[in-house]
UniProtKB/TrEMBL annotation:
Residues 222-266 are annotated as: Disordered. PROSITE patterns: IG_LIKE (PS50835). InterPro entries: Ig-like_dom (IPR007110), Ig-like_dom_sf (IPR036179), Ig-like_fold (IPR013783), Ig_I-set (IPR013098), Ig_sub (IPR003599), Ig_sub2 (IPR003598). It comes from Oreochromis aureus. This is Ig-like domain-containing protein. Residues 6-98, 104-192 form the Ig-like domain. Residues 234-246 have a biased composition (Low complexity).
Length: 282
Protein backbone atom coordinates (compact mmCIF):
# COMPACT_ATOMS: atom_id res chain seq x y z
CA UNK A 1 0.00 0.00 0.00
CA UNK A 2 1.44 3.35 -1.05
CA UNK A 3 1.86 6.12 1.49
CA UNK A 4 1.20 9.84 1.14
CA UNK A 5 2.14 12.61 3.53
CA UNK A 6 -0.76 14.69 4.86
CA UNK A 7 -1.88 17.69 2.81
CA UNK A 8 -4.59 20.29 3.39
CA UNK A 9 -7.00 20.35 0.45
CA UNK A 10 -8.90 23.06 2.34
CA UNK A 11 -6.88 24.89 5.02
CA UNK A 12 -8.23 26.65 8.11
CA UNK A 13 -9.78 30.10 7.64
CA UNK A 14 -9.63 32.96 10.15
CA UNK A 15 -12.86 33.67 12.04
CA UNK A 16 -14.33 36.89 13.45
CA UNK A 17 -16.97 35.96 16.03
CA UNK A 18 -19.37 38.00 18.10
CA UNK A 19 -18.89 37.52 21.86
CA UNK A 20 -21.28 34.84 23.09
CA UNK A 21 -21.76 33.26 19.63
CA UNK A 22 -20.28 30.02 18.29
CA UNK A 23 -16.98 29.89 16.40
CA UNK A 24 -15.99 27.02 14.11
CA UNK A 25 -12.68 26.11 12.49
CA UNK A 26 -12.76 23.53 9.73
CA UNK A 27 -10.16 21.94 7.43
CA UNK A 28 -10.10 19.15 4.84
CA UNK A 29 -7.12 16.79 5.02
CA UNK A 30 -5.86 13.98 2.78
CA UNK A 31 -3.10 11.44 3.39
CA UNK A 32 -2.36 7.72 3.48
CA UNK A 33 -2.51 6.15 5.97
CA UNK A 34 -5.23 8.31 7.53
CA UNK A 35 -3.46 11.05 9.53
CA UNK A 36 -3.81 11.68 13.25
CA UNK A 37 -5.06 15.17 14.03
CA UNK A 38 -4.12 17.51 16.90
CA UNK A 39 -5.33 21.03 17.68
CA UNK A 40 -3.39 23.92 19.27
CA UNK A 41 -4.06 27.45 20.49
CA UNK A 42 -1.07 29.78 20.65
CA UNK A 43 1.17 26.70 20.54
CA UNK A 44 -0.56 24.85 23.42
CA UNK A 45 -2.31 21.53 22.83
CA UNK A 46 -6.09 21.83 22.96
CA UNK A 47 -8.43 19.33 24.59
CA UNK A 48 -11.75 19.35 26.40
CA UNK A 49 -9.70 19.57 29.60
CA UNK A 50 -7.60 22.60 28.65
CA UNK A 51 -10.55 24.39 27.00
CA UNK A 52 -13.85 23.15 28.47
CA UNK A 53 -16.84 23.10 26.16
CA UNK A 54 -14.95 22.76 22.88
CA UNK A 55 -15.99 20.10 20.36
CA UNK A 56 -13.32 18.32 18.30
CA UNK A 57 -14.29 16.06 15.39
CA UNK A 58 -12.39 14.22 12.63
CA UNK A 59 -14.19 12.11 10.04
CA UNK A 60 -13.60 11.33 6.33
CA UNK A 61 -10.71 13.79 6.20
CA UNK A 62 -12.77 16.64 7.72
CA UNK A 63 -11.32 18.16 10.89
CA UNK A 64 -13.57 20.46 12.94
CA UNK A 65 -13.04 22.50 16.09
CA UNK A 66 -16.13 24.26 17.49
CA UNK A 67 -16.39 26.62 20.44
CA UNK A 68 -20.11 26.96 21.34
CA UNK A 69 -19.89 30.37 23.06
CA UNK A 70 -16.75 32.45 22.63
CA UNK A 71 -15.42 35.12 24.95
CA UNK A 72 -12.59 37.60 24.52
CA UNK A 73 -10.31 35.06 26.23
CA UNK A 74 -10.72 32.67 23.29
CA UNK A 75 -9.05 35.05 20.82
CA UNK A 76 -5.74 33.81 19.45
CA UNK A 77 -3.99 31.65 16.83
CA UNK A 78 -5.51 28.21 16.29
CA UNK A 79 -3.64 25.43 14.49
CA UNK A 80 -4.42 21.92 13.35
CA UNK A 81 -1.62 19.41 12.74
CA UNK A 82 -2.03 16.23 10.67
CA UNK A 83 0.58 13.46 11.08
CA UNK A 84 1.16 9.99 9.61
CA UNK A 85 4.15 7.75 8.85
CA UNK A 86 4.95 9.70 5.66
CA UNK A 87 5.11 13.15 7.24
CA UNK A 88 3.07 15.97 8.73
CA UNK A 89 1.36 19.25 7.78
CA UNK A 90 -0.01 22.21 9.75
CA UNK A 91 -2.62 24.87 9.04
CA UNK A 92 -3.11 27.99 11.19
CA UNK A 93 -5.76 30.72 11.43
CA UNK A 94 -6.85 33.53 13.78
CA UNK A 95 -9.89 33.85 16.02
CA UNK A 96 -10.98 37.40 16.81
CA UNK A 97 -13.78 37.87 19.32
CA UNK A 98 -15.56 41.21 19.12
CA UNK A 99 -18.58 43.00 20.54
CA UNK A 100 -19.08 44.95 17.31
CA UNK A 101 -21.30 43.71 14.51
CA UNK A 102 -21.60 44.39 10.78
CA UNK A 103 -24.04 42.82 8.34
CA UNK A 104 -22.68 40.86 5.36
CA UNK A 105 -21.46 42.99 2.47
CA UNK A 106 -20.42 41.78 -1.00
CA UNK A 107 -17.16 43.37 -2.11
CA UNK A 108 -17.34 41.25 -5.28
CA UNK A 109 -20.64 39.92 -6.59
CA UNK A 110 -21.42 36.94 -8.82
CA UNK A 111 -20.98 37.55 -12.56
CA UNK A 112 -23.12 35.93 -15.29
CA UNK A 113 -21.19 33.63 -17.62
CA UNK A 114 -21.65 31.90 -20.99
CA UNK A 115 -19.34 28.92 -21.51
CA UNK A 116 -18.97 25.91 -23.76
CA UNK A 117 -19.82 22.37 -22.74
CA UNK A 118 -16.87 20.69 -21.01
CA UNK A 119 -15.38 23.96 -19.70
CA UNK A 120 -14.36 24.50 -16.10
CA UNK A 121 -16.53 27.18 -14.45
CA UNK A 122 -15.49 29.39 -11.54
CA UNK A 123 -18.05 31.55 -9.72
CA UNK A 124 -16.42 33.93 -7.21
CA UNK A 125 -17.68 36.33 -4.55
CA UNK A 126 -15.94 38.38 -1.88
CA UNK A 127 -17.97 39.05 1.25
CA UNK A 128 -17.26 40.57 4.65
CA UNK A 129 -19.21 40.88 7.90
CA UNK A 130 -18.90 40.72 11.69
CA UNK A 131 -19.23 38.03 12.81
CA UNK A 132 -17.89 36.11 9.79
CA UNK A 133 -20.92 35.30 7.59
CA UNK A 134 -22.01 31.77 6.74
CA UNK A 135 -21.84 31.56 2.93
CA UNK A 136 -23.92 29.15 0.83
CA UNK A 137 -24.26 28.58 -2.92
CA UNK A 138 -27.53 27.68 -4.64
CA UNK A 139 -28.73 26.66 -8.11
CA UNK A 140 -32.39 27.35 -8.90
CA UNK A 141 -33.01 27.73 -5.16
CA UNK A 142 -31.47 24.36 -4.18
CA UNK A 143 -28.37 24.45 -1.97
CA UNK A 144 -25.19 23.08 -3.54
CA UNK A 145 -23.16 20.70 -1.39
CA UNK A 146 -19.43 20.59 -1.97
CA UNK A 147 -18.37 17.50 -3.98
CA UNK A 148 -15.81 16.40 -6.55
CA UNK A 149 -17.94 17.94 -9.36
CA UNK A 150 -19.03 21.10 -7.49
CA UNK A 151 -16.29 22.25 -5.12
CA UNK A 152 -16.90 25.12 -2.68
CA UNK A 153 -13.66 26.81 -1.65
CA UNK A 154 -12.77 29.64 0.72
CA UNK A 155 -9.65 31.81 0.85
CA UNK A 156 -10.12 34.59 3.38
CA UNK A 157 -13.10 36.67 2.22
CA UNK A 158 -13.06 34.99 -1.25
CA UNK A 159 -15.64 32.22 -1.74
CA UNK A 160 -15.64 30.11 -4.91
CA UNK A 161 -17.92 27.57 -6.55
CA UNK A 162 -15.78 25.50 -8.93
CA UNK A 163 -17.58 23.31 -11.50
CA UNK A 164 -15.04 20.82 -12.81
CA UNK A 165 -16.81 20.16 -16.15
CA UNK A 166 -19.92 22.07 -17.16
CA UNK A 167 -22.82 20.54 -19.12
CA UNK A 168 -25.95 22.18 -20.59
CA UNK A 169 -28.04 20.85 -17.70
CA UNK A 170 -25.87 22.94 -15.33
CA UNK A 171 -27.29 26.13 -16.89
CA UNK A 172 -29.56 28.20 -14.68
CA UNK A 173 -29.73 30.84 -11.97
CA UNK A 174 -26.98 30.65 -9.35
CA UNK A 175 -27.05 32.60 -6.11
CA UNK A 176 -24.94 33.11 -3.00
CA UNK A 177 -26.24 34.02 0.43
CA UNK A 178 -24.12 35.43 3.24
CA UNK A 179 -25.71 35.40 6.69
CA UNK A 180 -24.75 36.43 10.19
CA UNK A 181 -26.75 37.61 13.20
CA UNK A 182 -26.58 41.18 11.89
CA UNK A 183 -28.22 40.50 8.55
CA UNK A 184 -28.28 38.67 5.24
CA UNK A 185 -27.07 39.51 1.72
CA UNK A 186 -27.63 37.76 -1.62
CA UNK A 187 -25.92 37.88 -5.00
CA UNK A 188 -27.40 36.25 -8.14
CA UNK A 189 -26.16 35.54 -11.67
CA UNK A 190 -26.95 33.38 -14.71
CA UNK A 191 -24.86 30.54 -16.12
CA UNK A 192 -25.43 29.42 -19.72
CA UNK A 193 -23.62 26.29 -20.91
CA UNK A 194 -23.76 25.93 -24.70
CA UNK A 195 -23.97 22.36 -25.96
CA UNK A 196 -22.48 20.86 -29.11
CA UNK A 197 -25.64 21.44 -31.17
CA UNK A 198 -25.55 25.18 -30.38
CA UNK A 199 -21.94 25.43 -31.51
CA UNK A 200 -22.75 23.61 -34.76
CA UNK A 201 -25.36 26.17 -35.82
CA UNK A 202 -23.08 29.09 -34.94
CA UNK A 203 -19.89 27.70 -36.46
CA UNK A 204 -18.55 28.79 -39.87
CA UNK A 205 -19.96 26.73 -42.74
CA UNK A 206 -19.74 26.77 -46.55
CA UNK A 207 -21.33 29.63 -48.44
CA UNK A 208 -24.21 27.46 -49.68
CA UNK A 209 -25.14 26.50 -46.09
CA UNK A 210 -24.91 30.09 -44.88
CA UNK A 211 -27.15 31.36 -47.70
CA UNK A 212 -29.73 28.75 -46.80
CA UNK A 213 -29.47 29.50 -43.08
CA UNK A 214 -32.89 31.13 -42.72
CA UNK A 215 -34.71 28.22 -44.39
CA UNK A 216 -32.56 25.69 -42.54
CA UNK A 217 -33.36 27.07 -39.09
CA UNK A 218 -37.07 27.54 -39.88
CA UNK A 219 -37.45 23.97 -41.09
CA UNK A 220 -35.56 22.64 -38.07
CA UNK A 221 -38.01 24.32 -35.73
CA UNK A 222 -41.02 23.16 -37.74
CA UNK A 223 -40.17 19.47 -38.11
CA UNK A 224 -39.04 16.79 -35.70
CA UNK A 225 -38.23 14.57 -38.72
CA UNK A 226 -37.32 15.49 -42.32
CA UNK A 227 -40.41 16.69 -44.32
CA UNK A 228 -41.92 14.11 -46.59
CA UNK A 229 -42.07 14.43 -50.40
CA UNK A 230 -45.49 15.84 -51.41
CA UNK A 231 -47.83 13.32 -53.12
CA UNK A 232 -48.40 13.58 -56.86
CA UNK A 233 -51.38 15.79 -57.83
CA UNK A 234 -54.64 13.99 -58.63
CA UNK A 235 -56.13 16.83 -60.72
CA UNK A 236 -55.04 19.15 -63.48
CA UNK A 237 -54.72 22.07 -61.08
CA UNK A 238 -51.17 23.13 -60.17
CA UNK A 239 -49.72 20.93 -57.37
CA UNK A 240 -49.77 22.64 -53.95
CA UNK A 241 -46.20 21.87 -52.93
CA UNK A 242 -45.94 24.84 -50.61
CA UNK A 243 -48.97 23.90 -48.53
CA UNK A 244 -47.60 20.38 -48.05
CA UNK A 245 -44.17 21.49 -46.93
CA UNK A 246 -45.39 24.23 -44.61
CA UNK A 247 -48.41 22.41 -43.19
CA UNK A 248 -48.54 22.66 -39.43
CA UNK A 249 -46.12 25.62 -39.15
CA UNK A 250 -48.87 28.00 -37.89
CA UNK A 251 -46.62 30.91 -38.89
CA UNK A 252 -46.61 33.78 -41.37
CA UNK A 253 -46.26 32.74 -45.05
CA UNK A 254 -42.90 31.23 -45.88
CA UNK A 255 -40.60 32.96 -48.39
CA UNK A 256 -41.18 29.85 -50.56
CA UNK A 257 -44.73 31.10 -51.18
CA UNK A 258 -43.32 33.88 -53.40
CA UNK A 259 -42.30 31.38 -56.12
CA UNK A 260 -44.16 32.43 -59.24
CA UNK A 261 -45.66 30.31 -62.00
CA UNK A 262 -48.35 27.65 -62.01
CA UNK A 263 -45.87 24.85 -61.29
CA UNK A 264 -42.46 25.13 -59.54
CA UNK A 265 -39.53 24.24 -61.73
CA UNK A 266 -37.67 21.00 -60.90
CA UNK A 267 -34.84 23.01 -59.34
CA UNK A 268 -37.15 24.90 -56.96
CA UNK A 269 -39.05 21.73 -56.15
CA UNK A 270 -35.79 20.01 -55.19
CA UNK A 271 -34.77 22.92 -52.92
CA UNK A 272 -38.04 22.76 -50.98
CA UNK A 273 -38.12 19.02 -50.36
CA UNK A 274 -34.42 18.57 -49.60
CA UNK A 275 -34.39 20.71 -46.45
CA UNK A 276 -33.66 18.40 -43.49
CA UNK A 277 -34.04 18.77 -39.76
CA UNK A 278 -30.27 18.61 -39.30
CA UNK A 279 -29.79 21.79 -41.33
CA UNK A 280 -28.11 20.29 -44.45
CA UNK A 281 -29.02 20.83 -48.09
CA UNK A 282 -28.66 18.07 -50.67
Amino acid sequence: MSTQAPTFTQPLQSVVALEGSAATFEAQISGSPVPEVSWFRDGQVLSTTTLPGIQILFSDGRAVLRIPAVTAAHSGRFSVRATNGAGQATSTAELLVTVETAPPNFLQRLQSLTVRQGSQVRLDVRVTGIPTPAVKFYREGAEIQSSADFRILQDGDLYTLLIAEAFPEDSGTYSVTATNNSGRATSTAELLVQGKHHRLINSSKTSSLIHAGEVMITQHLAHKTPPRVPPKPTSKSPPSYVSKVTAGRQQSPSPVRHVKGPTPTPVRYKTVISVKAGGHLN
